[in-house]
Design goal:
The complex is a heterodimer of chains A (110) and B (112). With 110 residues, chain A is mainly β. In chain A, 0% of the residues lie in helices and 56% in strands. Chain A has strands at 5-7, 10-14, 19-24, 31-37, 43-50, 55-58, 61-66, 71-76, 85-92, 98-100, 104-109. In chain A, strands 2, 4, 5, 9, 10 and 11 form a 6-stranded mixed beta sheet that branches. In chain A, strands 1-3-8-7-6 form a 5-stranded antiparallel beta sheet, with no helix packed on it. The model of chain A has no long low-confidence stretch (mean pLDDT 89). With 112 residues, chain B is an all-beta fold. Chain B has strands spanning 4-7, 10-13, 19-25, 32-38, 42-51, 54-57, 65-66, 76-78, 87-93, 102-103, 107-111. In chain B, strands 2, 4, 5, 6, 9, 10 and 11 form a 7-stranded mixed beta sheet that branches. Classes of the chains: A mainly beta (110), B mainly beta (112). At the A-B interface, strand 4, strand 5, strand 9 and strand 10 of A face strand 5, strand 9 and strand 10 of B.
């Protein structure tokens, strides 16, 4: 079964607005990672938050992690057209096992 | 520059004709893996390798083979491709458990 499930599946916002996407997972994790994928291309790592962290920032990105609810959120502030992409959370459940969600497709309208 | 290189980027082939998709990384990572991405299903792991000569099945290994004779290379082999293997394939390198993973640019495979 899918470990990471993103929500919403699709999101359309105006440039300058904030975008929030959520990820829920089912089992215990060592860390949770967010990746971006531009259409049909490889995934690019955005940010990693460890299980003992609650919040992490990187530039315009803010990630939160709530291990009690088994959920994480990714906030992109002041969005740009170049942020248009699909966003995936990845949850390494074990040494070699990692599961990706189905992703949130973000469209930022100029 | 840290890189995962996949070849080819695009491939159209016929049912039953053996093919190999190559993957190479320059980061000296021990861990490499293959994924396929299909609409509505996200990324699903096909095989992974924790080191040279150590490989194991992921979630959807049927119809695929891999080998890891050298640390830098991890080819994906389709002995007898079928149309249900039409997909976008990604190779990844690096240990997810501790750090980020690096992905290749993808191979779009069509089996007719």
């Amino acid at each position: 079964s899918q470990q990471g499930e993103e929500d919403p599946q699709a999101l359309s916002i105006q440039e300058g607005e904030n975008a929030t996407m959520n990820c829920s997972y089912k089992t215990s994790i060592n860390n949770l990672q967010w990746y971006r994928q531009n259409s049909g291309r490889g995934l690019v790592h955005l940010i990693l938050i460890r299980s003992n962290e609650r919040e992490k920032h990187s530039g315009r990105l803010r990630v939160t992690l709530d291990t009690s609810k088994k959920s994480s959120s990714l906030l992109i502030t002041a969005s740009r057209a170049a942020d248009t992409a699909s966003y995936f959370c990845a949850t390494p459940g074990g040494y070699q096992k990692v599961t990706f969600g189905t992703g949130t497709k973000l469209q930022v309208i100029p | 520059e840290a890189q995962v290189t996949q070849n080819p980027r695009y491939l159209i082939t016929v049912t039953g004709k053996k093919l190999t998709v190559t993957c190479s990384q320059n980061m000296n990572h021990e861990y490499m893996s293959w994924y396929r991405q299909d609409p509505g299903l996200g990324l699903r792991q096909i095989y992974y390798s924790m080191n040279v000569e150590v490989t194991d099945k992921g979630d959807v290994p049927e119809g695929y083979k891999v080998s890891r004779k050298e640390k830098r290379n991890f080819p994906l082999i389709l002995e007898s491709p079928s149309p249900n293997q039409t997909s976008l394939y990604f190779c990844a390198s690096g240990i997810f458990r501790d750090n980020e993973a690096f992905f290749g640019q993808g191979t779009r495979l069509t089996v007719v």
